[in-house]
Amino acid sequence: MNPPCPFLPSCGRPLSWRDLAEQRAVGGAELYARCLEYGQQLWLDGLPARALLAIDRALYCDVSATDEILAAYPLPYAAIRWLVSQPSDAFTGNARVHYQHLADRVRGERAELKQWRAWAAWALVRQARPELPGDPRHSVREPTHADIAAGLDAYGIAGERAVWQAALTA
Predict the structure, then answer these.
(1) Alpha carbon 156 to chain centroid distance?
(2) Taking CA atoms, which of 77, 81, 98, 154 is between 20 and 30 Å from 129?
(3) For the chain, which residues make up each domain, given as ranges?
(4) Measured CA distances, 138 to 80, 83, 107, 129, 135 (Å)
């Protein structure tokens, strides 16, 4: 059994994808909190790849820097780094490639923000798991940490770069 992620909340009851669907219409901070809770549950259930996907969904929620949930559970950069740093044979795929592809392929509403958040997560995975290779068949310009910081400053919420950098140096 996995230890709980110290950067994720638990809601104290079993959740399913239906609980996320209920919050989709509400969105914002409520959906953010539920995605984090669901990510914790999936992690504890031994489903690390699915937990990471739930946390990705939280990362893409439309939250404001003043939302109360962020005081207790900032944008989940530390959670992403912590999860990929844990020993687990249950991870499927390669988290570095996952974020590389995600950053290069995101479209739609708030695409720039989502792109820089995906690159920020990619940088965390690269730092936490340097042995994971990139996708050599996916031709993309990989940004520097300075590029990512500038992207988060330009498109992210107030204080986001500092949250990411704290996770990066943890």
Answers:
(1) 14
(2) 154
(3) 17-169
(4) 23, 25, 17, 19, 5
Separation of alpha carbons 124 and 169, rounded Å: 9
What is the C-alpha separation between 151 and 135, in angstroms, rounded?
22
Alpha-carbon gap, residue 25 to 3, rounded angstroms: 32
Closest CA to 165 of 122, 120, 126, 129: 120
Q: Is the model's pTM score more than 0.90?
A: yes
- The helix-helix angle for 145-155 and 160-169 (nearest 10°) equals 150
Task: Please tell me the distance from the alpha carbon of residue 55 to that of residue 35, in angstroms, as a whole number.
Answer: 6
Quick: pLDDT tens for 39-66: 999 999 999 999 999 999 999 999 999 9
